C-alpha cells in the first residue's frame, strides 16, 4: 500500500482529473522544486472514479485561472499546521489571456507582435471560448462538468 504523509504547511491540489496531474506538475515547474512534492496519479475517488493529487510542502504563487482552465473541478487546499486553513474551488475562468493562442491566420494576434491572446468564455458546459479580436472559437476539451 502506498503511504504519503500529510504536509505541515503547503498546498494540496485535489480532485484533478486522472491523467492531468502531470500537466499541472509541469506547468508549476515542480520538477525544479527543492522542497517535497508528491504527485499521486490514479488515486481512487468516490466522486470521480480515479483522480490525481499533488501535495506541495511549500507555499507557491499560482495562477488559478490557468489551473481552472486545465481542469475546472480542481480544489486547492491551503495547509497550515497540518490542517486545512483555506479551501478554494476552481472553475473555468470567464476570461483568459495568453494561455491559448488564436489559430486564425487572419487574426490580429497572428499578424502583430505583442498583442495579447485574449479569449472570453462563451459556454461553460462545453468549455467554449471566443477570441476577443476575430471571434474564432476554441473548445476546451479538458472540461468535464
From TrEMBL:
UniProt cross-references to InterPro entries, sorted A to Z: Asp_carbamoyltransf_reg_N, Asp_carbamoylTrfase_reg, Asp_carbamoyltrfase_reg_C, Asp_carbatrfase_reg_C_sf, Asp_carbatrfase_reg_N_sf
Name under which the protein is recorded: Aspartate carbamoyltransferase regulatory chain
Ranges of residues in domain Aspartate carbamoyltransferase regulatory subunit N-terminal: 2-91
Family annotation (SUPFAM superfamilies): Aspartate carbamoyltransferase, Regulatory-chain, C-terminal domain, Aspartate carbamoyltransferase, Regulatory-chain, N-terminal domain
Family recorded in the similarity comment: Belongs to the PyrI family.
Binding-site residues for Zn(2+), renumbered to this chain: 102, 107, 131, 134
Domain Aspartate carbamoyltransferase regulatory subunit C-terminal: 95-143
Key words, A-Z: Metal-binding, Pyrimidine biosynthesis, Zinc
Cofactor binding, per record: Binds 1 zinc ion per subunit.
Oligomeric form and interacting partners: Contains catalytic and regulatory chains.
Source organism, top-level taxon: Bacteria
Entry keyword Zinc: yes
Xref: Pfam families: PyrI, PyrI_C
Cofactor(s) needed by this chain: Zn(2+)
Function: Involved in allosteric regulation of aspartate carbamoyltransferase.
